[in-house]
Structures are given as structure tokens and as C-alpha cells.
User: Which sequence fits this backbone?
């Protein structure tokens, strides 16, 4: 059975990256194992925890629930691509300001999900933020601070 | 995950032709359910036919019907302005489903075909399950029954269908358009699912290789209102214990053309035709509905661990009626 590697191009954080992957490789594993971008975390690997959240063509998805080969030619944004040089993304700044993490494992996924949530226009009240961020679990339970961080990033002047 | 051959196609005819000679193949759309099932060894296809380039992403409304391409993403449909305006029930049901990340990836067609969340069906360690391996037995009969179905079940399987969207679509009398090798047919979504009798591993009447290409929803009378109510074990991102989609037409102070579908209680969205008839012409203030609501799921055969679903269903329908009729 032809199960050899397939060569694909992904635009990762603005740069075209060519990789050869086994078709079974999820986008998550391709980012971490092929490209060394370990900021995107593997939590449950079943789309239930949100730790692997990335932006695909600007929309948040679970990187564990899609195959890398399905995303040939698409744009992927990971936590490594969010800042502009030394200047943190406003959502990153807000997470620091609100102390919106404890162990930090879920944080990259929380931040990418927050960027998506704000872009979708769902981050208007603390209630809509809680609903909009329900795909991201935090085992340290930093939820109150996460909600405040997203609210801050969504409502501050010049927010993304 | 077992090795498989991956192929991306851009023409429906090609996809169907490839699938016709790949008996253990599967179509791949959003992948949010299929990949999970493959990781857990529930599905072991040897060929994945990626259909994401097929031209089925439209969301169109004309004087007769709403047509949704099967590859439209859940969030595309929920956010579409014409859906929000003309079919707010669909938006409600989609936004009650999964998480924002999953809704951005999951396709409409795949949502209708998602497999049950019965923990024994999805167990990483293989346990008896007639839906997974017919004839192997049912672990749920003496196991965790909280999420299982209470009606439309059989001696071999009590699994519940998990979709929220399908419940709303069945209440709206939606149809699915199917394409197979040399054939096209349109089936009422209400007739699309089947009870687990002789073939508990077959959730639907979909023939091998047939593809859902479109969902068709009839236009609604402008006086039609609806509501989707969902009760689950946590406030968000959880499957329904019980949900109800209610559609009715406001006629003065009375309700007409009442349509009710339940989720979480059966192997398919479960319509309540006798209750719908009993509610016909009752007041929008809901003063006259108690008798009809008491007959909901009167024919159910709950298990010891999910008897609560019968009374919960009556309460959820009452709540959905209240919110649809503006009586809350």
C-alpha cells in the first residue's frame, strides 16, 4: 500500500516551510516534530483541551484534529509567530498584566484562542468570553484571570 | 493510527469513483470526528479521500429553500447573515455545539455523520460494543448509562446520537441530498438515521460510497418562531444530556404547526408527532400544555442510570416552548 511520505508546503508564521510527512501526521505533530515549534502543546490529542490551538488562515482550530497534508498551501500562525520582534502581541501583554496562567502549559493555546475569539467579535462581555473560550481548559484553573486578560485585550484602545 | 493512502480530489465524480474501489476507504472533510476515531482505533480506513476541494461550501437562500453545501463549516453556517436572520434556530443549535475551534473545522455533512459518544464505543481499550463490532455485546447495559438513549433503542444498543444541529434540522423538516455512483437522491433527515436493530453498526441509511453533498431546509412562514434548549453536565463544550428544538407558527394567541425534536435521548433526533398534534392550537401563554407535555417519552424504555432523562425532556421542551413563544 502506498503510504510513503508526502511533501507539502505550509506557510507557518509568514514563512513557507516545505516538509515531508507521513500522511498520519497531525498538524500539531508536524509543527512540533518536523518544524521544532514546540510552543504549540499536545494535551489530550482529541480536541477536548485546546492546548494545541493555532490559527489556520486566521481562524482558530485544534491542530490535533487535522492532518498536516490537509493543510497544504494554508497559513498557520502559532504562538512563536504572534509577537512582532521584541514587541509582544497585545493578548500576550494582557496575559502578563493579568497573571493569567500558573503552570503555563495551556497558555499558548489560550492566547491563540483569545486572538481568534476577539477577531470573531465574541469577546464583548465576560460572559461571552467564558463561552467563547470554553474550548480551552486550564488545569490550574486560572480562568478568572484568563477572562480578565481577554477582556482587557479586547477592550483596550487599539485592540487587535 | 494505522497507515492509509491519502488522496485529495477536486471533482465529486472522481471522489465517488475512488471510493467505489476502496471498500475500506473513508471520505475526509473536517476530520474532527474521524481523526479522533482513528486515533482510538475505532475506525481503521486504508484510504482517505480528502474532499475539501469539492464545490460544496455554498449557503444560499431562494424563495423555496435554504441550501447548505455539506462542506460548509459549522461556524460558516452559524455566522451567515441570512441564516441568523431567517433560521436563528440553526445558529442557536450550532453555537450550543462543541467549541469555537471545532466549529471552525467541522463540516456540516460530517456533523450529521458523527458517531455516538457512548464511552464504550469510543473506548481506547476494546470492550464489547455491538455498534463497534456487531455481536460482541453491550458494555453499557451494566455500565455507565448517564449519557445513553431512552427511546428508539434495542436489546443490543442504547447509544444516543450526539449532534445538536441535526436536532434543529429535523425540527425544520430538512432534507439531505446524497450522491453515489450513478445516483442522486434526496432523503428527509428524519428518515436518514436508523434504529439499532439488525445492523447497530450502521447509524444511517447512507449506502457505501454515497456522499452527503447538500442540506436543504424549507422556507419558513414569517410568523414562525423557534428555540433550541440544551441541558448538559457543564455550562459549555459538552454533549447534550437532553436538548429540544421547537418550531411553531404564531397565530394570534395560539400556536400552529408545532414541531418538536429531542436530542440526547435516542439514536437519532427524536420527533414527537403525538405531542405536536396535541399542542396544535393551544395558547402561546402555555397554560394549556401541561397534559401534552406529560406524554413526552411516555413510551421510553430508560435504563436504571438514565431514567432522569424522561422528566428532564419534559422540562426542556417546556423551556424551549416558553422561549419560542415568548412566554418566558
Assistant:
Amino acid at each position: 500500500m502506498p503510504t510513503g511520505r508526502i511533501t507539502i508546503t505550509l506557510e507557518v508564521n509568514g514563512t513557507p516551510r516545505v516538509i515531508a510527512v507521513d500522511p498520519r501526521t497531525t498538524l500539531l505533530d508536524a509543527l512540533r516534530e518536523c518544524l521544532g515549534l514546540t510552543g504549540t502543546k499536545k494535551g489530550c490529542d482529541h480536541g477536548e483541551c485546546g492546548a494545541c490551538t493555532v490559527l489556520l488562515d486566521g481562524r482558530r482550530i485544534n491542530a490535533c484534529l487535522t492532518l498536516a497534508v490537509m493543510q497544504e498551501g494554508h497559513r498557520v500562525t502559532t504562538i512563536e509567530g504572534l509577537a512582532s520582534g521584541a514587541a509582544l502581541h497585545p493578548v500576550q501583554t494582557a496575559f502578563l498584566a493579568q497573571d493569567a496562567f500558573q503552570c503555563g502549559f495551556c497558555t499558548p493555546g489560550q492566547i491563540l484562542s483569545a486572538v481568534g475569539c476577539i477577531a470573531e467579535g465574541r469577546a464583548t462581555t465576560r460572559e461571552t468570553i467564558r463561552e467563547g473560550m470554553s474550548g480551552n481548559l486550564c488545569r490550574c484553573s486560572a480562568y478568572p484571570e484568563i477572562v480578565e486578560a481577554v477582556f482587557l485585550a479586547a477592550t483596550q484602545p487599539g485592540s487587535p | 493510527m494505522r497507515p492509509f493512502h491519502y488522496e485529495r480530489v477536486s471533482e465529486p465524480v472522481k471522489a465517488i469513483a475512488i471510493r467505489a474501489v476502496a471498500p475500506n476507504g473513508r471520505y475526509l472533510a473536517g476530520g474532527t470526528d474521524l481523526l479522533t476515531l482513528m486515533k482510538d482505533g475505532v475506525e481503521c480506513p486504508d484510504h482517505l479521500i480528502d474532499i475539501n476541494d469539492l464545490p460544496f461550501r455554498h449557503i444560499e437562500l431562494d424563495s423555496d429553500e435554504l441550501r447548505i453545501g455539506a462542506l460548509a463549516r459549522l461556524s460558516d453556517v452559524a455566522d451567515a447573515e441570512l441564516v441568523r436572520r431567517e433560521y436563528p434556530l440553526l445558529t442557536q443549535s450550532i453555537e450550543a455545539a462543541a467549541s469555537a475551534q471545532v466549529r471552525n473545522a467541522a463540516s456540516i455533512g460530517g456533523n450529521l455523520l458523527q458517531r455516538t459518544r457512548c464511552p464504550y464505543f469510543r473506548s481506547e481499550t476494546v470492550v464489547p460494543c455491538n455498534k463497534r463490532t456487531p455481536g460482541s455485546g453491550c458494555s453499557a447495559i451494566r455500565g455507565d448509562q448517564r449519557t445513553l438513549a431512552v427511546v428508539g433503542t434495542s436489546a443490543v444498543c442504547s447509544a444516543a446520537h450526539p449532534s445538536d444541529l441535526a436536532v434543529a434540522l429535523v425540527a425544520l423538516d430538512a432534507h439531505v441530498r446524497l450522491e453515489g455512483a450513478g445516483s442522486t437522491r434526496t432523503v428527509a433527515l428524519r428518515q436518514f438515521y436508523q434504529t439499532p436493530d439488525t445492523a447497530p453498526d450502521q447509524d444511517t441509511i447512507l449506502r457505501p460510497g454515497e456522499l452527503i453533498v447538500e442540506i436543504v431546509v424549507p422556507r419558513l412562514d414569517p410568523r414562525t418562531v423557534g428555540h433550541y434548549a440544551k441541558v448538559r453536565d457543564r455550562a459549555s463544550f459538552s454533549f447534550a444530556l437532553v436538548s429540544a428544538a421547537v418550531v411553531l407558527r404564531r397565530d394570534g394567541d395560539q400556536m400552529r404547526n408545532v414541531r418538536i425534536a429531542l436530542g440526547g435521548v435516542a439514536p437519532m433526533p427524536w420527533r414527537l408527532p403525538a405531542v405536536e398534534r396535541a399542542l396544535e392550537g393551544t395558547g402561546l401563554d402555555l397554560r394549556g400544555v401541561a397534559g401534552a407535555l406529560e406524554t413526552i417519552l411516555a413510551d421510553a424504555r430508560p435504563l436504571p442510570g438514565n431514567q432522569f432523562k424522561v422528566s428532564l425532556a419534559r422540562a426542556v421542551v417546556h423551556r424551549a416552548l416558553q422561549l419560542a413563544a415568548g412566554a418566558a
Q: What stands out?
A: The mean pLDDT of chain B is 97. The interface with chain A takes residues 1, 3-6, 8, 28, 30-32, 35-36, 39, 46, 48, 50, 52, 75, 98-102, 104-105, 235-237 of chain B (CB under 8 Å). The CA atoms of residues 293 and 315 of chain B lie 8 Å apart.
